[in-house]
Amino acid sequence: MKLTFPHMGNTFISAKALMEDLGNEVITPPKCSKKTLEIGTKYSPETICLPLKINIGNYIESIEKGADTILITGSCGPCRFGFYSLVEQEILRDLGYDVEIITLDPPDGKPMELVKRIMKAANTKNLYKIVKNIVRGAKVLQAADELTDLANKIRPVAINGVEVDIIMDAFHSMIELVYGVDETLELIEDTKLKIGKVKTDEKKVPLKIGIVGEIYTIIEPFANLYVERKLGHLGVHIDKSLTPSKWVKHHLLPGPFGSKEEKEKWEAAKPYLSTLVGGHGRETIGSSVLYAKANYDGIIQILPLTCMPEIVAESILPTIQNDYNIPIMTLIVDEMTGEAGYLTRLEAFVDLLHRKKEEKNIAGVLPRS
Amino acid sequence: MGQKVGIPQGLLFFDYYPLWKEFFSELGAEIVLSSKTNKDILDRGVSTCVDEACLPVKVFHGHVCDLKDRVDYLFIPKFISIYKKEFICPKFLGLPEMIKNSIKDLPPIIDIHIDLRKSKINIVNSIIKGGKYFTPSLIKISSAYNKAFKYYEKYIKLLNQGIIPMDAIKMYNSSITHKTKDNDNKPKIMILGHSYNLYDEHISMNVIKKINNKGINIITPEMIDENKARKYSSKLPKRMFWSFGSKIIGSAFAIMEEIKLDGIVYVSSFGCGIDSILLDIIERRSRKETIPFTLLTIDEHTGEAGVNTRIEAFIDMIKWRKKNEAHISTHG
């Protein structure tokens, strides 16, 4: 069995390490590129959202490298992500690829089905071994996310921010060469040290922007056109409302009363949106309120075109913008998004935030005319 | 006359109007409908709604604009689930919030929650909450609902007999239930899509009447019994968690298996998330069964002439196929 999975930010690092420790052969899909998206767009339904198109591209590129089994997670609505497995299976079958898709759906009344599928994917029936390795895998994910956060923190204040990018690119290509959890953790620690050595300029005070929106487009750098790098070079420190390790905390390892952070977001969203709208629509609203309360300079919402839950959130965000006097910009990405236009909008938004901040600082000095 | 309750003629209007109307009239309220969808309503909807929303949601915003100044209450229920363990479209889940945040100076909104996901008990609370706006008496509310539900059942029965909702809405409370008998020799086309796209004459540009007038018998998802549709949609490898989905996919599969169908027309609004999945599944299935399939995507820019041309071409093709299918030239 040669296992592969779709890309989503740092998840491939931990999924690869975890599956290798369980003794599987893992084929990491090539890094998402224009080619990936082109393949995906060609074979996917026209009006489906961007993540599926990139997924299909990932699968086909992995299959060309020899993969024969695909591992994905699923859901049971109301967002269309729940049908990804079904549509993806049909697309690959019609293209003549003989691959098996293992979907890890939420139990939905049949918990044994999920256990069976996990055993199949893990290629072992030893539950103790599986649980132990999942915990170790979660640790890798946590470490990888911490590394990304560190890079995002250093980039805006570094004298030469490109140095951070070079270290991170080297890190991503090194992942292919390490095997298992221990080696991966070691590589992450090494990289952290390297980034810590990048020279910073203490006079630089970065703006703070919170990123909210649809989980895939926030997490996968290719889908959001490397927004963290672009903003980092513009001198902005970003915080993402959702990361893979947060997702794991929310869905796989919740405490007895569910995740605390998620509850906080729901509570914050309550005055604007009291019930669920699928996907992460309610979390988008909640995170925006929390960012505003934490005195962030601005908020950017990112979503793939036609994303249903985020459209609902988008229509509510202007009210939050007025209530908390915080600028909010919405960026919509799909396969037609042009990089230059995207960068211009980011630059304009950052300029606006700078000006707003300056006005606040001199408000007491200059008389209003 | 009592207080005025405004019901926008959009989204789930064609699914539930008789129920809503009879319930509120029974409680002594006066029902005010928005005008039928027209250019003006569409334009007002487009200008108030977020750009990314789909056409029916924009049109719904337009209907609310049309109504808001002439009623005491607006009836915009928050539909979360209409069947156990199922959802409806995420945009419906947030509809009252979308309206409140996009349109200013609204009258009070009756935004009761309809949530049958876990149990049927919730609906009782919602009905009482809706009724309390007009009377404190629980007995009155319950008898009003029971009466309204009888009308609703009759309406559903009419639909299952093959009467399109635009006509059924006019005849559910009268005794006329006549329907012109279909001529069985004519080609049969199934028109698929959400009720709020298909039956809104402005949004769909009257596609049903257009096809019907060309001498074609039509079948729509509303004409298939709900339980039958559910049975067929449960054959999918993944549980269908959208109620709209099980209706559209189930009815399409049922018809494809049970009768000889000559073609499928899918009317979808641009950017519809549910349709993007459904129409892919149906298109792949119809290809296997060699049934012609065409997709009409509609948005606020669609021109009527283009739609006419496509319908004509599709019907011509079906008629040629019916006539000439057996005549294959010896020379290929």
Task: Identify the overall geometry of chain B.
Answer: globular
Beta-strand fraction estimate of chain B: 5-15%
Largest sheet report of chain A: 4 strands, parallel
Strand content of chain A: 5-15%
Number of helices of chain A: 15
Strand order of the largest sheet of chain A: 2-1-3-4
Task: Give me the side-by-side strand order of the main sheet of chain B.
Answer: 2-1-3-5
| Whole-number tally of structural domains of chain A | 2
The chain-level structural class of chain A is: alpha/beta
- Total strand segments of chain B: 10
Written account of the structure:
- The complex is a heterodimer of chains A (369) and B (332).
- Chain A has 2 domains: 1-200, no CATH class; 206-362, Rossmann fold (3-Layer(aba) Sandwich), CATH 3.40.50.
- Helices cover 55% and strands 11% of the residues of chain A.
- Chain A contains 15 helices and 8 strands.
- With 369 residues, chain A is an alpha/beta fold.
- By secondary structure, chain B is an alpha/beta fold.
- Helices cover 49% and strands 12% of the residues of chain B.
- Chain B has helices at 13-26, 39-48, 55-67, 90-93, 95-102, 121-132, 138-160, 165-171, 195-198, 207-213, 226-233, 243-258, 273-288, 304-324; strands at residues 4-7, 30-33, 73-75, 78-81, 109-110, 113-115, 188-192, 217-219, 263-269, 293-298.
- Chain B has a 4-stranded parallel β-sheet with strand order 2-1-3-5, with helices on one face. In chain B, strands 8-7-9-10 form a 4-stranded parallel β-sheet, sandwiched between helices. Chain B has a two-stranded parallel sheet with strand order 4-6.
- In chain B, helix 12 (243-258) packs parallel to helix 13.
- The radius of gyration of chain B is 21 Å and the shape is globular.
- The N and C termini of chain B lie far apart (74 Å).
- Chain A binds chain B through residues 45-49, 74, 76-80, 82-83, 85-87, 89-90, 94, 108, 272-273, 275-279, 281, 305-309, 311-316, 318-319, 332, and chain B through 49-50, 52-54, 78, 80, 85-91, 93-94, 97-98, 101-102, 113, 236-239, 241-242, 268, 270-277, 279-281, 284, 297.
